Structure formats: structure tokens, C-alpha cells
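Entry type: protein chain
Record version: 2
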Amino acid sequence: MPNVMPIGVTTFRQTNNYCPACMYAADVNYNGETRCNFGAPAVAVATLVANAVSMAAVAVTDLSGVAQFPEPWGRNVTIVASGAYAGVVTLRGYDYLGQPIREDLTCNGATPVLGKKAFKSFISMTSPTTGAVTVNIGNGAQLGLPYKTLRAQFETANGVAVAAGTLTQGALTDPATATTGDPRGTYAPTTAFDGTTVITASFDCANDVNAANHGGLHGIQQFNG
């Protein structure tokens, strides 16, 4: 699928390693189990991706210079406005496979809204017109996953076993849309992010495909309309 690039935004391209109907991976055993090392996720920062972007005029903001998320399979985003605002902000970027992603985030004034998709890097944000409100985009508490995931088995924090966190299973909607969840799912660990504690977890993954032969371990293809 070609990448849709707004005018005025720096164009860069990543290798797309998405495998349609992926059945096997070296790190997924015959039972569908895999162990994920997320490293030491950093504390969430509300302005990490975009800081006080004005909504006073329709604009495309170039985010290609924003550092990619260090978490191996990406992370979701959060968005919050400085005041009353219910506009839809379009965020474009890439997942860990290099698939272009588009996510539409509907703001809820000064209440943070959580994104559903796991971004690895960014291209741009597009915002509609509304007064003098500004918007921040930061990193969220949901970690991306390497494969379409059905269950979290256990978690460790610096090698010590803790209760498994909360798994949001991979979205099966086909084709994906700008508002559906991540096709592989996301994981919110029990362990708080502090930038030093190494978090690992074990998961059950699924390589099932639907009637159209779409899906597999990499899930449904990301939306990029």
C-alpha cells in the first residue's frame, strides 16, 4: 500500500517487513508461545511527540524529526488539548515492521485520550481549525507486541515474577481503519515505567487467518488511508 504523505512534510521511507498471513517465526514455539523483553520503558511524557501545537488553523505538522520510541515494538500515544476541543487529529507514522500507520484521535478537551495503535516512529499530524487551543501528544502506557496476541501468561520486573499485566488483544477488523485497535494488540504491564526496571512477559500468540486469508502472526495490515 502506498504511503499517503501530506504536502509540506518531509518524505522518508522505511523498509516494510510486514508478512501477509505469516505462519511461523523463530521466536514463537510450536504452542504459539513467545517471551518478550521490553527493555526499561521510560516514564510517559505528555509532550514527547508534539508540544503545544496550535489548533488555530488547519495545518500539517512535520514529526519526522521526532525520535522513534525506544521500546522494541513501539508504544501507543496520548493526546490532550489545553482547553475545550473535540476535533479529530490525524497522526501518521510507522509501526515496528515499517508499516505506515494512520490513527485518528478525537480530542476530549483537557482530558487525555489514549491511542490504540503501537507507533514506532512518526511522520506528521494534521489538525482542523479551532480557536486558540493547543494540543500535546505524548507516549502512553500501552506497549506494542511483536505478534498477534491472545493471552499474557506472566511478567517479570528485573527478573522477579509479578502478576501479568493487561492485554488488549489484536484487532481483527479487516480492513483496519483509522480508529480500530492495533492488529497485534498492546500490553499494559503491572510494573510501573521508570526507565530503569527491565520488563519481560510471556504471551500466547495466534497465526490464524480469516476467510480472506488475511492475518497471521503479524495481524491484519495496518490502515494508511
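Comment: The longest strand covers residues 134-144.
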